[in-house]
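FAQ: What does a multi-protein file look like?

Like this. Sequence, then tokens, then the next protein.
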Amino acid sequence: MTTVPQLTQALQEVFTTTADALARRTGFVQRTSKLTGALFAQTLVFGWLANPQASLEGLAQVAAAVGVAIRAQSLDERFTEGAAVFLDELLAHAVQTVIAADPVAIPLLERFSAVVLLDSSTITLPAALALWWPGCSKGTAALKLHVRYDLCRGCLSGLLVQEGRISDRSTPMQTAPLPRGALRISDLGFFTLGVFAAMTAQGVYWLSRLAPGTAVYTPDGARWDVLDLLTAQGTATVDLDVTRGVRHRLPGRLLAVRVPEEVSTQRRRRLHADAKRRGRTPSAAQRAWCDWTIVVTSVPPALLSLREALVLLRARWQIELLFKLWKSHGHIDESRSANPWRVLTEVFAKLLAMVVQHWLLLVSCWAFPRPQSPQSGPNYSSARPRPRQFSGLPRVFGPHPRRHPALRRGGLSPQPPQKEAQYLSTPP
């Protein structure tokens, strides 16, 4: 477990020594300046942590609080390509710092050395950045966040920022090592039989929904269509030993449960809406697939029942709530500016702010979860920064400087949104 003094030391290292070193190495700071790399990082990260919609004037107040007097215009001039590269490097260094809480005392999770959720989220960027951060379509720009989240200890064991066009299946997160006896839970975007086979060889368990079209074989060697196999069982729940893949023949369990009619109807409605958006027509097999929740796993029945597997699969929603927290309350995908480099710098600074906020939650309230059910893990969907909540954080970096005249008594003053603000929203 990380203690408050250990967190303080980690924050000091990241936002002082490391920040200054990276600012010089990336070329953001090339000569002696009152606005050092450390002060620049502290200004943006803690300014936007206190108020994600802070204006340049508000950030200038934060700069005064951390020890440097600078005008809003001068601060705006520092939002360059070098600033974006610097904060990208600082974010990559920060996420290597392991901040974790004591494991939650939930019997279902305690069966594994770790329960790791893997997912991704995309942030759209101005088209001018397409050369550096290409999106999925020609001429578009985006970046993709790949996050690995330990459900037992709350640790962000991975946060990788890549080009928006990178698929989930090809991200290095796919093959990042996990401790023996751990369980990885991921969605269809990460479904790769070769990766599952490598994890099984390393003693790591996996749990995922089954990708349509995957070859499934019963123990007698017969290949089955998945829907035909489920129908042949004649029951609403299925737990079978099968092998998957024409080439891999990966052994494991096929778990399935027939969903209520209202759920299947809702799924078909979403299927048709998505098909219409893409200019396609759903097949009969796709419509029939909506009647079932189909899961594959390498966890043996003695360690995990069908019902418990479905509970853990629903726990993947926790990482969706994390992304929602970052976007809805951290505003990592919004900017007041149309300057591409400021937008990109702001993304990295706000991601750093969300990492710091997550660290603070772990050392302060991880031991007091508000679970959705006795079987689920901690739910921090209601955790959100309040106005001026983190305005005192820069004080951990040393004595509080003499107040700048721009600072109002009682802390930082929230700045009203500017009328010319341009918001960059991320599609669902």
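And here is the next protein:
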Amino acid sequence: MYPNVFHWSDVPRELIVPVHDLEHDLAFHRTAGLEIQQGFLEGRLPTLPASRALVARIMREYIPRESAGVEFGSGGYGTFFNLFLPDEFREKWTQYEINPFFVDHSKEIGRRYLGTEGRVLEGDLYKMPFADNSIDLMAVLSSYDSVMLFDKALAEVARCLRLGGDFVHFQDLIPAEMPLLLTELKKRQRAGLLEEVNYMCGYIPEFLLFSLESLAHEYEQIPSALYLTFHLADVGQQYGLVPLHSGIVQEEIVVTREIHAAPFRKLGVTYHDSFNSMGHLPGHNYSRENSLIRKRDVETYSGMGVIVAQKQ
């Protein structure tokens, strides 16, 4: 059932030596090209109505509307701020991105196409430019799915949040494989177990692992985005970030075709009226016409791994 097995011999040499982890991580994110970011944007647009409703539901349920929010890893399109974030949080929001080209491009996208003049600054999630215990909220969209040093990243979140401040992570894409496989190997090494990970990749629509994380949460197998969500919750607790929610959140919403097509037109992206995003979680995100609803309406569905944690 699991055709792939991951061993230490599969880990790139530069990732085995801890002192190299951070530099490798930072160099990759500082120099990444815009092509993959464009793919993420276009893949998210067909399910945007449901995804926006999902984000709004979580934010309004857990986060005080007066909170001043920061976001790290905002990307080349500022997708979370420009397309997902509820209006009541936008005035006090600041985006940070380590890639200087992405910073400039995100500002231009907001200004030219969406009329959203957000604050976008250059910044590193491993070294945030804040005093201890100083920020209300950090909320991000799939920003921690490719970091190599989860402990260091979440320790920095905990340092910066004030007491009672919140960390929110929405995982709407399949995470990068290497950080999770390496994480699972390290867990097995510490537990004195066989140091290999059985997994299935390329099995549409999910990347599945048989892991200690899945056993701990009573799953026979676990989608990688849910593995990441549980792992962020577990690591965060070591630094005083207490989970208020950790798991899959789903949303389904019907909109008119005009509303569905509007963000495509604004951004100059070819319209898709039927879409199945294999990169989303839990793997069946879609937008489609449904014979049971009005002819001009489109049904959209979104599912994300979500953690909401509060510093206590």
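Q: Is there any per-entry metadata?
A: Some entries carry free-text notes. For the entry above: The chain has one domain: 4-311.
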